[in-house]
Design goal:
alpha/beta, 185 residues, 5-stranded parallel beta sheet, UDP N-Acetylglucosamine Acyltransferase, domain 1, 23% helix
């Protein structure tokens, strides 16, 4: 494993201009294209592509095309989860999605973060912070989950919310930035 990939996986600062990461990107491009073109293919064929693309995915998981990700192999999706079309999962870091999660259209799960220092940012430095979505969470359409965020089980995040901080279990959160408006039973 190359140094930049090792740093990326460890959540350390790295520069993504690396032949090994470029090869992983080419792999992802081909697999996402195959998955997104396989709309009329039998479910078993679509699942085969997802199994090759993602770190782990249950046979009962449904992801509507188009779907995009950075690498795929950092994504783990639990049983019974549904991901609507237009999802973007930037998985330079780990993305863990629990069971029975509902993800609306155009949801973004983002693990990469960039330097605030302009010179280092121009040089391309980045790192990743994991995103974790608990069991039975519902993310409304257009939700953006920022790097390093954990959303607790049974939480609902309203459409268009930008989640910049962890959310506890069993709450309704809305807005930009997302804020808890009430507890759920």
């Amino acid at each position: 494993m190359g140094e930049n990939k090792r740093l990326m996986l460890a959540g350390e600062w790295y520069i993504p201009d690396d032949p090994e990461l470029a090869a992983d990107t080419e792999r992802r491009i081909a697999l996402c294209a195959a998955y997104n073109a396989a709309g009329a293919a039998p479910p078993a064929e679509r699942h085969r592509i997802l199994t090759e693309l993602l770190g782990s995915v249950d046979a009962s998981t449904r992801i509507r095309a188009p779907f995009q990700c950075d690498f795929g192999y950092h994504i783990s999706i639990g049983a019974g989860t549904f991901v609507n079309f237009g999802a973007v999962f930037l998985d330079t870091g780990r993305i863990t999605i629990g069971t029975d999660v509902q993800i609306g259209p155009y949801v973004q799960l983002l693990t990469p973060t960039h330097e605030l220092d302009a010179e280092r940012r121009r040089a391309g430095w980045e790192k990743a912070e994991p995103v974790t979505i608990g069991d039975n969470v519902w993310l409304g359409g257009g939700v953006i989950v920022c790097p390093g965020v954990t959303i607790g089980a049974n939480t609902v995040v309203g459409a268009g919310a930008v989640v910049t901080r962890d959310l506890p279990p069993s709450v309704l959160a809305v807005g930009n930035p997302a804020r808890v408006v009430r507890e759920l039973p």
